[in-house]
Amino acid sequence: MRGWLALIHRESRPRRQITAYQRLRRLFDFYAQFNVLQWDEAAVHRFERLRSEKVRIPTMDLKIACIALVHDAILLSRNLRDFQKVPDLRVEDWLN
């Protein structure tokens, strides 16, 4: 998304921006197909609990894991090494 927005910003001629706007719109349409789970109070609570339990994985990964945990979701990732450190998290790598 940032790439298309940067291209739009760099191009001063509106007519030359049409393709970038079209591609940006296609990206939004693609994203709209997915149910995006939220970072909310329940996820924050789980995050704080896991940090206090000394679960040590990168912060953004732990946030993602907490969102999956509070929604009882299976997390799909190639990063099994880190995510398998999170208690009760169901994580799968569908690429292998």
Task: Using the coordinates shown, work out and report the CATH topology of the largest domain.
Answer: Rossmann fold
- What is the beta-strand fraction? 5-15%
- Overall geometry comes to elongated
Mean pLDDT: 95
Give the helix/strand class.
mainly alpha
Q: CATH superfamily assignment of the largest domain?
A: 5'-nuclease
Radius of gyration: 18 Å
Instruction: List the strand order in the largest sheet.
Output: 1-2
Whole-number count of domains: 2
The largest β sheet comes out as: 2 strands, parallel
Distance separating the two termini: 28 Å
How many H/I helical runs?
Answer: 5
Provide the helix percentage: 40-55%
Number of beta strands: 2
- Named at the architecture level, the CATH assignment of the largest domain is 3-Layer(aba) Sandwich
Ranges with pLDDT <50 over ≥5 residues?
none
Reading the helices and strands in chain order gives: HHHHEHE
User: Which CATH top level class of the largest domain fits?
Assistant: Alpha Beta
Question: TL;DR?
Answer:
The chain has 96 residues and is mostly helical.
Could you explain the architecture of this structure?
The chain is mostly helical. The chain has 2 domains: 2-31, no CATH class; 41-92, 5'-nuclease (Rossmann fold), CATH 3.40.50.1010. Helix content is 53%, strand content 6%. It contains 5 helices and 2 strands, in the order ααααβαβ. It has helices at residues 2-10, 18-31, 41-52, 59-70, 80-83; strands spanning 74-76, 90-92. Strands 1-2 form a two-stranded parallel ribbon. Helix 1 runs antiparallel to helix 2 and helix 3 packs across helix 4 (59-70). The longest helix is centred in the N-terminal third of the chain and has 14 residues, at 18-31.
